[in-house]
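Async update (no meeting this week)

Hi team, since we skipped the sync, here's where things stand on the single-chain job. The sequence we agreed to prioritize is pasted below, unchanged from the tracker. I ran it this morning and attached the output directly underneath so nobody has to dig for it. Comments welcome in thread, and please keep replies under the output.
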Amino acid sequence: MEYIPNGFKPNHRRADSIFAYLIGTYEDGDFPYTSATLTRRPQDQVPKELWANANFWFYLTHMMRGRLESHSAAANVVKLYKRRPDLFDPKLAAQLSEGEIHDQLEKEFGTLKKRQHHARAWHRNSELLLAWGGDIRNVYDGVTTEEEVRARIVNKRKYSLPPRERGFFCFQAKMCALLTYFLVGAGHIKRISMSPPMDFHHQRVMIGTGIIPLPVGRYYPKAIEQLADQVGRKYLDRNPGMNPVKFADLLFILSREGCFRAVTGTKVNWKDPKTVKKYQEGCGRCPIEHKCEKTADTKSYYRDDGKTRVIDIVPRPRAPKRLR
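Output:
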């Protein structure tokens, strides 16, 4: 396992260059930001008539974890709302048992891993939301910074605290950012300069492009997540006109649509039709391929064996000129 040395810093100047390039690509509607890929975001699965329901976005955020594909999860939450709208009313949801909520969630999502505590979070957070008047927008009253938002939303794991000081069960930095971005995007709260929900997708692009210039090796995700957090927050602080929701899309969509097809390894057979096809559908279409030298392996992060997640940084070999 490699350790990130003290004082290691991301390359903010390179980040500015990469983000400027991607913003231009996004605005032109070129790969990976095509009309087809942009409709696979979670918010695009939500009918416009539900956008005005702030608490819907709060409950949707509960299902944005545990290896559930975000756009599919959002579509399932919409189905759940249409069938059981009472689950999205904190007063009514708090009166249900965890078992009842779990059964209703599994009708839409299939078997859910108990260790993810989806039903428990849904129930407990309904109770906690009542302490805020039953409206998630009240949690954001008077806050203007990321630090203030996290102080109210991120779970403190101290149940002796008053309800309004505990944070929400299972909510950590990523879910806090997701919820904030959903509410900003739906027009419920004003823009907050807040780092995007820095999941594996955002980290993979930053690693590959040298924004987080780490050498090939195996790393614990937490330290990389913190570095990615710094990059996102600093960029938004310096660019107050940047829509934070669009900014979050830049890296997430690029990784989801392109990076997961990356050809990796030190010995690659570029005459193999399968390898060529994989390259042409992924890195070969990427607007910043010429700025990318590495990638992160998906399998070691999204694990099914219950072992600790790690980020394996691996080389991404250059394709022959005939393919580029």
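Quick observations from my side:
The mean pLDDT is 93.
The chain has two domains: 1-39+192-324, 53-185.
Reply here if anything looks off.
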